[in-house]
Amino acid sequence: MEIVRPQSHRNLFSSNDAVSVPSLPLYRSAPPLEVRLEDFESFAIDRLRVLKGISDGLSRGKKPEEMEKLVKELWKVNMRHQHASEVLNKDIISHFVLRLVYCRTEDLRKWFLSMECALFRYRFRFLTPEAQRAVMDNFDLTCRAVNNVEFESIKEKLGQVARSMGQPSPTVDAIFYKVPFEEVPELVAGRKVFISQGYAYVAMNQVVSLVATLFRSQLSKTLILTNRVAINCCRKWTSSIREQEKHRLTPIVEALSSSYLGPDFSQPREYAEISLKDIDQVAKSSFPLCMRHLFDKLKEDHHLKHGGRMQLGLFLKGVGLNLEDALAFWRAEFSKKVGLEKFEKDYSYNIRHNYGKEGKRTDYTPYSCQKIISSTPGAGDQHGCPYRHFSEENLRAALSRMGVNSRAMEDVMDKVRNRHYQLACTLTFEALHGMTCDAGINHPNQYFSDSQKILQPKKDSSAQNLVTARE
Amino acid sequence: MIPQQQSDFDHNYLKPYYGKLFPFADIFKWMTYGHDGKHPGCDQSYFGRREFSFTLKGDFYLRFQSFNNALELENSIKEKCPLKIDIGPVYTVDPAKRHAYAQGDNNVFAPVERELIFDIDMTDYDDVRYCCRGADVCLNCWPLMTIAIKVIDASLRDDFGFNHILWVYSGRRGVHCWVCDGKARRLTNEQRASIADYYRVYKGNENSHKKVSLMGAALHPFLATSYTNVLKDYFEKILLTSQNLLATEERYEKILSMIPDESIASELRGKWQDSRRSSSAKEDINVVRWEQCKQLLQSGKHKAQGLRRCVEEIVFFFTYPRLDMEVSKHMNHLLKAPFCVHPKTGRVCVPIDPNQCDDFDPTTVPTLFQLLEELNNEGSRADVNGEWNGTSLGNAIALFRTSFLEPLQKACKEEIERSYNLKLQQSKNSVGW
């Protein structure tokens, strides 16, 4: 792409193509377009709004149907252009600009990849069948359709799979695609496909998953390459653009990559620091249910399995517990069960590791609700999201131990039944604090700090840190 | 419950074990995966990029150990006498040099290959076995492991197309599985997680409803095959009786609580409360009661939704394999090496032949003491095949070689040759004027 001066505006892309068939570009290569400088920034920001909207929707636990509607709306609102012929250009240009910006670190790449893949997936779903087939052609999929002979030999198994999902057995003219099982991890994980000798048999209505995985793997590879290229590119760009424009371009790129995506609680705010003696008290008053449960179980059993130690340990770090106090806290509990020596040998290392003091010194971030909800606690585990992972009776018991009254309890359970786990937690918060929480709970540390703000209004509630998200 | 012999393990005896019995050459051959330098297509750096870790006496833990050749590996183990040897992944670079490569955000030190591994532990079955708890195992509950091996092994081969699979006794209460095909070693974390989830049926813990939930008009072919070929028979012909699953009120109530239709449950309860002792002592009471239970659930008389798969759900609950998901999901997860000695039992982690796993008896696995005694009795024989020939370890090592290592090496060499020839072709094609 070439950055041109504001006055000139040339479009090398054929306008007919863009209007006739609404297509889904695969972003395989940067197109030979010329971009106005102001479009460079505004296109990217519009697309960023779409991606952030998707990120927001996902972290609020929206169901697929709701996400589909949301994506349609976000795209319509943000990605239109006064010249219909420019819509496709905007799509492509905005993607490549953001790619340039978000390729630079592992965390940014991860976020960008997730959101672009989600966007691609939902947009694919509302393409016409012809357009979908065109995309599949691009991924060389149509040639992997199962022929009649093979279909006959596996028809019964395919029928079993369909009926196990409550769907009718496939008819004789049903199309199936035979792909390596590695290409459809979602379908494999859910036992939604018949697998034989390393190949998965994907039904037409499951093709979205397949295409999305292929798109993701393609984009993932190019992001890493882009990072290497971008460093060179930037040098080329900055040397070929005149002085004023250079000063305009660099800050734009910088600003886009550090756009506010939500606090990640990796740097605890000073005023929220808690010390060892405060823990018991704040656990009762300000911990969300998931952490309260882990805390109580720890006090009761003097032990937690790995998943629980991570979830609670990182939460406490986010809440402001320093390393020394954390070690004292865990030591006090664990040594009652395993003894002091074993604690020092087996457990203290991992606590220091969580604080970035060992090994590769990553400073781990506390888990968000999205991450906790999607965890899979097994036998003997106490972590996870109680609204999701507890049976109804156990959840009711836990909530009433926290002090939730019976009327609020019904509202909460109603949310749980509809799988709105974070809304259930928000209602719990509101019931216990007697105040509404408009933003909704997205992060256990957010629950804590919001709670403390209400209970200790004397402390300064200064503006939140604007930090780069690291999901 | 078979009591463990008190002193089958002594750290001092590890020295002669590593000195004379541990099969270093075999482990090395395995870990090189054909990259032994004998073919121009070999990657000389491959073995050196593999992580080993040692647990030493006094609970010292040495991670990121790596070696350039078999001799270095052997000398280090003989010198340090680790209580446990773990095998990790193959990294992008030699683990010992990792600090030089970890620069800021773009971490160039990362795993590139790792076997697909599974860990099945008897403690995860504590709610379905009454003979033992926790770390104990006996011949009454060991069939649960046999079931796991059969179900998973068949699926790994038939469904996923893997061929080079090693099953190992963990030394005390479980089994490990190593899938070593090239395709398996190169799986991403996401793909590993998808396979682990494919195998996941039992969900939940003490906080949720412990559940086996088999909805739908049919079972997925994998579950159906497992049920028909393995689970049903083991449940009805072995576990029902050996675990006395329906013999007492406490135990049959557990099964009755899994029947969503209260009228059926009470009908059965009525039948069983009255017949304390089975009038016909011929037939085992558990078998009789299970027949009655199945009859009612499958009769078609009560055709409620949740009932359709109730019989299967009960069987799955008591028999279906329970994997440790976390072990399989991440490339960097360490796993104990075969032929280690378990410090609590003294037993050697020997391979298990999946085709003969019905015959495997964890209570007769050779122990450290036993092996060293055998060595002493035989005298030291400079045997051309190595000293293990005269001991009980011989069979284990022979099994490792013939059923696993040799076919694997053959396949690896073929793969190396194939990709080497391919590269040659490509470079020939690209050289042009």
From TrEMBL, chain A:
Co-factor requirement: [4Fe-4S] cluster
Key words, A-Z: 4Fe-4S, DNA replication, DNA-binding, Iron, Iron-sulfur, Metal-binding, Primosome
Residues binding [4Fe-4S] cluster, per UniProt: C290, C369, C385, C425
Pfam family membership, one: DNA_primase_lrg
GO molecular function, one term: metal ion binding
Residue ranges of every copy of the DNA primase large subunit C-terminal domain listed in the record: 280-448
InterPro entries for the chain: DNA_primase_C (IPR058560), DNA_primase_lsu_euk (IPR016558), DNA_primase_lsu_euk/arc (IPR007238)
GO BP annotation list: DNA replication initiation; DNA replication, synthesis of primer
Coiled coil listed as a keyword: no
Cofactor: binding comment: Binds 1 [4Fe-4S] cluster.
Annotated GO CC locations: alpha DNA polymerase:primase complex
Family: Belongs to the eukaryotic-type primase large subunit family.
PANTHER family: DNA PRIMASE LARGE SUBUNIT
Protein task: DNA primase is the polymerase that synthesizes small RNA primers for the Okazaki fragments made during discontinuous DNA replication.
Name this protein carries in UniProt: DNA primase large subunit
Lineage: Eukaryota, Viridiplantae, Streptophyta, Embryophyta, Tracheophyta
TrEMBL record, chain B:
Signal peptide annotation: none
Molecular function GO labels: DNA-directed RNA polymerase activity; metal ion binding
This protein's UniProt keywords: DNA replication, DNA-directed RNA polymerase, Metal-binding, Nucleotidyltransferase, Primosome, Transcription, Transferase, Zinc
One annotated GO biological process: DNA replication, synthesis of primer
Family to which the UniProt record says this protein belongs: Belongs to the eukaryotic-type primase small subunit family.
NCBIfam families assigned: primase_sml
Protein name (database record): DNA primase
Source species of the chain: Cicer arietinum (Chickpea)
Gene giving rise to this polypeptide: LOC101511036
